Amino acid sequence: MRRDYQGIGINTSKNTHEVIFSLMDPDRDSVIADIPTGSGAFVQRLKDQGYPNIYAIDIQNFFEADHDNFLLGNMNEALPLPDNSCDILICIDGIEHISRQFDFVKEVNRVLKKNGKFIFSTPNISSLRSRWKWLTTGHHHKETAPFDENHPSSLHHISLLSFPDIRYLLHTSGFKINRVLTNRIKPAQMIFSLFLPLIYPSMALTYRKQGKKNNTRKINREVFRTMFSKQILFGETTIIQALKSDR
Q1: Residues whose CB is less than 8 angstroms from the CB of residue 16 and which lie 6 or more positions away in sequence, other chains included
Q2: Whole-angstrom Cα distance, residue 3 to residue 9?
């Protein structure tokens, strides 16, 4: 659903910008990159809050904000930024639209400084609501019907990610997840908690068995706990803050 900030269009779920902004570094001198920047609503929010050092990046120039530092960039290709040049990279509802997600995350790692923050949002397909939709239709939340293959579009959600997929993507690309949040939990979503007595023991058994087999007990326990957090079970959009690791 499309909303706006200061008259600039926002094309993401309600409260997503607000939650992501809450994860920003309080240091106003931080160098920030926003990709895909879209119309520039989040950039304008940052500027209004006193952040002057912002790169706005997108594959096309749809920019509406009052900002000079716009760069053309493709998330499937090398980012137009030097190594170790940013303190924070923001990606709002972008990662599910690209085919080369591992390459993109490695590029994010390249351009971030040591201990830099990677903050991004993506539709929550690990929610109980999305799992029910997949069971009944074969389509996840935010992918309610087949894509129009006659008219391929960068707006298509071609690479939706479950939380375990997100964690694997980040933890094998030089990041560690620090925070897992959501934009909102609608009261109506709580009805899907009726499935928990079925899902909990099934996942617990599977994770325990595979953890023993693959020697991944610690990883499986951590993922299991997050999968049964209220943010993942009932949240509309998953919002991740990951830190660039030292290794």
Answers
A1: 92, 93, 121, 183, 237, 239
A2: 6
By DSSP bridging, strand 32-34 and strand 86-92 are parallel
Collapsing DSSP to helix, strand or coil, 181 comes out as: strand
Per-domain residue ranges of the chain: 2-126+143-186+234-244
Residue 240: name the closest of 141, 159, 185, 169 by CA: 169
pLDDT at 2: 62
Q: What is the pLDDT of residues 137-195, one digit of tens each?
A: 999 988 888 988 999 888 888 899 999 999 999 999 999 999 999 999 999 999 999 99
Query: Helix or strand or coil: residue 242?
Result: strand
The DSSP code sequence of 26-57 is S-TT--EEESS-TTSHHHHHHHHTT---EEEE
Three-state DSSP at 123 gives strand
147 near 158, Cβ under 8 Å? yes
Whether 237 and 20 have beta carbons less than 8 Å apart is answered as no
Q: Where are the alpha helices (DSSP H) in the chain?
A: 16-22, 41-48, 101-111, 128-137, 163-171, 196-214, 217-227, 230-234
* Architecture of domain 2-126+143-186+234-244 in this structure: 3-Layer(aba) Sandwich (3.40)
Residue 25 in contact with residue 117, Cβ under 8 Å? yes
At a CB cut-off of 8 Å and minimum separation 6, what does 214 contact? Answer: none
pTM of the model: 0.95
Per-residue pLDDT tens for 72-90? 999 999 999 999 999 999 9
